[in-house]
Prior knowledge:
With 148 residues, the protein is of the alpha/beta class. It is 43% helix and 20% strand. It is built from 6 helices and 5 strands, in the order αβααββββααα. The longest helix is centred in the first third of the chain and has 14 residues, at 21-34. The protein is globular.
Amino acid sequence: xxxxxxxxxxxxxxxxxxxxxxxxxxxxxxxxxxxxxxxxxxxxxxxxxxxxxxxxxxxxxxxxxxxxxxxxxxxxxxxxxxxxxxxxxxxxxxxxxxxxxxxxxxxxxxxxxxxxxxxxxxxxxxxxxxxxxxxxxxxxxxxxxxxx
Length: 148
């Protein structure tokens, strides 16, 4: 799995405005729709919210990784959003989140989805990388920080 092939400047939003989990998920889906990556926003939204109902994707250190499996994509797609203000995402550490990475993958493909989630979760063990991502104002730089 190569994050550089999945993430592009068009799939990065540095200023999410949402104040709730649902609003953040909607904004991330809009990024994927605008980039031509998702064919049906409502169906994609339902699969992500369904996953959230089972267990929150709010991790630790201010990061959430909302994701789901849906027929609205033909291959794994992903986007990154940075929130201007912390958002309660029912995280494991009870801390609000500012960094959101959404991924959607086809229902019939498991490997790339699990590989992506594993790769992304490893990246965010670095406090330095998290800090760099929150400080940058350049979409391409966010991708560079993630993929170095």
